[in-house]
Amino acid sequence: MKIAFTASRAEVAQSALRALGARYGDVPADAADIIVALGGDGFMLQTLHDTQALGAPVYGMNRGTIGFLMNEYAEDNLAERLSAAEEAVINPLVMLATHADGHISKALALNEVALLREGPQAAKLRISVDGRVRMEELVCDGALVATPAGSTAYNYSAHGPILPIGADVLALTAMAAFRPRRWRGALLPKTATVRFDVLEAEKRPVMADADGNSYRDVVTVEITSDPLIAHRILFDPGHGLEERLISEQFT
Fold first, then answer.
1. 98: Cβ–Cβ under 8 A, 6 or more apart, which residues?
2. SS3 233
3. Is the bond leading into 180 cis (omega within 30 degrees of zero)?
4. How far apart are CA 200 and CA 211, in angstroms?
5. Beta-carbon neighbour count of residue 179 at 10 Å?
6. DSSP code for 150
7. What's the CA gap between 219 and 208, in Å, rounded?
8. What fold does the segment set 93-225 form as a domain?
9. Among 41, 197, 209, 211, which one carries the catalytic annotation?
10. Is 211 a catalytic residue?
11. In the CATH scheme, what is the code of domain 3-90+230-248?
12. What's the whole-model pTM score?
């Protein structure tokens, strides 16, 4: 089994990189059967984005903080763990954001695409689903569209629902909705195209964020799920995303 190791800049991750590379060997990512990512959830997302064009699945080991997408770190029996690992497949969101100056930014997000107010005033957003306006005006701090994999992240903190990993739905969740008062959001088919139009953009500027990559001064944001892009993540048996999503609701 050819393994490629990659690690965050944290010293604990770099130390693990040296130890595991010396013990199991380390090949370039494009020659690997499996990529092992050492770090936290943020680094795991970065690794999945960076290796998107490669066929190898990614197995994460936690050398960060929360590690929701990671397995427990251990130096022993890595080959056996990789052989026994269970695979989860995640389709990312595709964001197309049009800025006030007319240029367009494109980004992928495994967790969520969020719109957030840039200034002191609340954002005003119009929400359309599959070309039909569903909400003429949402006054809020922001709103997001989350995948099942990302439903326990920012979405859950904003009181959005936790989605089973196999569910063909997306969560549309509002942050601090003022009008309609306390509107929490909606569940949408995975095939839906969601469009946000920023109202009064000059007075109430809005930024878009795709898995931590920020784009300022947007006026429209369109979000779809891309079934043609598949990220493969490996988990130890009994500790996969499905189990973690269920367990999270009982903690």
1. 104, 218, 219, 220, 221
2. strand
3. yes
4. 25
5. 12
6. T
7. 10
8. Tumour Suppressor Smad4 (2.60.200)
9. 41
10. no
11. 3.40.50.10330
12. 0.82
